[in-house]
Amino acid sequence: MTRITNLVIKRAHGAKFWTVDDEEYLDFVSGVAVNALGHTHPEVVEAIQEQAGSLIHLGLNYGYYESAVNLAEKLAEITPGELDTVFFSNSGAEAIDGAIKLARAATGRPALIAFEGSFHGRTIGATTLTASSAKYKKHYEPLMGGVHHIPYPYALQLGAGMSEQEATAYSLDRLQKLFELQVDPSQVAAIIIEPFMGEGGYVPAPVAFLQELRKITEKHGILLVFDEVQTGFGRTGKMFAAEHAGVTPDILVLAKAIASGMPLGAIVAKRELHEKWPVAGHGSTFGGNPISCAAALASINVIVREQLVERAAALGQQIVERFNRSIGHFPAVAQIRGTGLMIGVEFKDQDGNPGTKLVAAIREEALKNKLLVTGCGVYGQTIRLMLPLNIAEEDLDQGLTILEQAIAKAAAN
Ligand SMILES: Cc1ncc(COP(=O)(O)O)c(C=O)c1O
Predict the structure, then answer these.
(1) Which one of 75, 221, 284, 405 is separated from 298 by 20 to 30 angstroms, measured CA to CA?
(2) Ligand 1 — pocket residues by CB below 6 A?
(3) Coiled-coil region(s) at which residues (predicted)?
């Protein structure tokens, strides 16, 4: 695994953690977009403790238990459209693999289409869909068959000066060419996309692109799968990123922030689709374990009650405006983008190439000043902010100031 620091960490609370030597750090990584409520939120801790006292594990093949049923009902309530039925897994990658199985079983079709730059996880199925770095696939070929990739509509990377509309048209054209030259649409089970690309660079897909994908998939009987493992639960300033485009996918895959750090993934779809999945066609010993489900219910309750989705939208706008003023003028800053608290700052070097070294220098300088931030992007050229949605104003300001100073220092060299 990659380690982003060599720190030995003892405890964490809110947007901070402390090392074994009691050094305090601000955490703008949030367990890689997991701790939407910050670390050890009291209501989540209480729910975990209470659940652990009454039921730790059975397995959902026993029958039913309250926390899993209540969580499934809650997810049906808060997810877009009429998605009303849930299969629980342990992680994002595992849920993606489940979604692949569901799509193939329900359609009887073999092929899958994913996007260059995307990241879906580390199981063999999810690794096959992933195309954000060849190093994730090196040594593991041959991977799963039947997977095709087309470019994500990421204007800045697709061509100098390309507009969002041009990027949308280009990616749609490549999809059409794929249908004509390589795989007939009648053979395609699903198109799988992150509606807001995470690891690949913190890049939102244009609304028009997602809407067009919805029309194309409907026309050909292809299932549309949204991987909202990183975007779900308020991160983008909507409960789910799908809402920005007003598009309901056929399958919504969730994990990360769902349970504030307890392992849990979810495959959400309409009942009629889930019912096409044969009994015993999938399963999991731990998936949907009672403690993870209780933690998820508690964290969703806090997100809704404290209107943290709305807060994420407002704070995100303020941060982007602040960055435009404070760092937007540096030639090394290629783009400041994002919605809600999914904000990326992409860097370029003096020759216009990806600013990989700049990002490494910024992260190192920030860490020296006790702020943990990390990067993303195919070349590691983007700084990404993964703030708790409930971050205290004071922590936010302090962290942003450290980051701006680190950027100013790196950009000046
Ligand atoms: C969009 C997306 N999908 C899937 C995954 C895989 O999730 P997990 O690490 O829980 O397997 C990730 C993890 O970073 C992700 O960002």
Answers:
(1) 284
(2) 32, 91-93, 96, 119-121, 194, 198-199, 227, 229-230, 255
(3) none
Question: What is the spatial distance between Cα 144 and Cα 323, in angstroms, rounded to a whole number?
Answer: 42
Residues 178, 127: Cα–Cα separation, whole Å: 21
For residue 159, pLDDT over 90 is answered with: no
> Ligand 1, atom 13: nearest CA belongs to which residue?
121
Q: How far is the CA of 294 from the centre of ligand 1 (A)?
A: 21
From the CA of 78, how far away is ligand 1's center (Å)?
21
Residue 322 Cα distances to 315, 319, 401, angstroms: 10, 5, 10
Give CA separation, 11 vs 4, 23, 52, 113, 261, in Å: 17, 11, 20, 41, 14
Record the tokens describing residue 210, joined without a space. Answer: 């997602």
- Whether cis (ω within 30° of 0) applies to the bond prior to 142 is yes
Torsion from C-alpha of 86, 87, 90, 94, nearest 10 degrees: -120
End-to-end CA distance of the chain: 31
Give me the long-range contacts of 281-286 (CB less than 8 A, separation at least 24). 281/101, 281/105, 282/87, 282/98, 282/101, 282/102, 283/61, 284/60, 284/88, 284/89, 284/90, 284/94, 285/59, 286/57, 286/59, 286/90
Q: How far is the CA of 271 from the centre of ligand 1 (A)?
A: 25
The percentage of residues in the chain with a pLDDT greater than 70, rounded to a whole number, is 100
pLDDT, tens only, 170-223: 999 999 999 999 999 999 999 999 999 999 999 999 999 999 999 999 999 999
Take atom 3 of ligand 1 and give the residue whose Cα is closest.
120
Return the ∠ at Cα 330 (arms to 327 and 336), rounded to 5°.
Answer: 55
Rounded CA separation 231/237 (Å): 9
Tell me the CA–centroid distance for residue 392 and ligand 1, in Å.
26
Residue whose CA is at the smallest distance from ligand 1 atom 8: 92
Q: Which residue has the tokens 């749609």?
A: 172
For ligand 1, atom 7: residue with the closest CA: 92
In the chain, the domains with their CATH numbers are 9-33+307-412 (3.90.1150.10), 44-305 (3.40.640.10)
Is pLDDT above 90 for 413?
no
d(CA 159, CA 153): 11
- 20: pLDDT strictly greater than 80: yes
Distance between CA 314 and CA 366 in Å, rounded? 25
- Which is the closest atom of ligand 1 to the Cα of 265? 10
